[in-house]
Amino acid sequence: MRLRNIPGAREEMLVNPYVVQEPEQWRGRWREFFGNDRPIHIEIGMGKGQFLTALAAANPGINYLGIEKYSSVLIRALEKQSELDLPNLRFLRLDAENVTDIFATAEVERIYLNFSDPWPKDRHAHRRLTSDRFLARYAQFLAPEGFVAFKTDNRGLFDYTVETATACGWELSELTYDLHHSPYEVGNLHTEYEDRFAALGNPICRVVLRRKA
Ligand SMILES: C[S@@+](CC[C@H](N)C(=O)[O-])C[C@H]1O[C@@H](n2cnc3c(N)ncnc32)[C@H](O)[C@@H]1O
Questions:
Q1: Which CATH number is 9-15+31-211 given?
Q2: Which strands sit side by side in the sheet containing 142-152, from one edge to the other?
Q3: pLDDT surpasses 80 at 144
Q4: Ligand 1, residues at Cβ distance < 6 Å
Q5: Where are the chain's structural domains?
């Protein structure tokens, strides 16, 4: 995705009350961080936060952490959150490469991956957020009954994800190649990219991944 640099965004990350500073210190203690015993759901590569903000507003009984690599993108989510001040929503400016430094075994109930960067070249496949490398990382901190929910309009990335997850021993469910015209559309909150690509007529694919018992 093309990124527009926003002057001051990086500095804002260091002082904004909704951005968790030194998140490694909360590894294994995220419920303590939120001050309650509610489940933790995360979105990796959350972009400007439309999806996670709507989810957090609708589900006050869940704690949400949004992870985004770039300050200039995350700052848009912070603008929304400063208006809403949702107590169950916080953000990490973090490269997903380091996600296992942040969460301990079984600490996260749900991982959302929405319209992740496709990295179409084979030599970049390891960077895809649904590569075997990343799936192995998620398995380290996903609760036994937890799952990864993945949406994209990119059929190449979707097929790759289905193949990779199957080969890595994950169980696939709720698979659809046209989410918006499927029963799973009920309650489906749209992301920024989802709205953009659906408006172009692109069908949206979705699958849920669970580790086999
Ligand atoms: C195509 S956008 C999708 C944004 C949003 N999820 C949506 O559906 O509208 C992908 C986002 O993932 C972020 N991203 C890409 N690689 C990442 C990584 N390794 N760690 C964290 N965020 C990443 C990008 O900066 C970008 O904001």
A1: 3.40.50.150
A2: 89-93, 63-68, 40-44, 108-114, 142-152, 205-211, 170-176
A3: yes
A4: 1, 44-47, 67-70, 73, 95-97, 114-117, 191-194
A5: 9-15+31-211
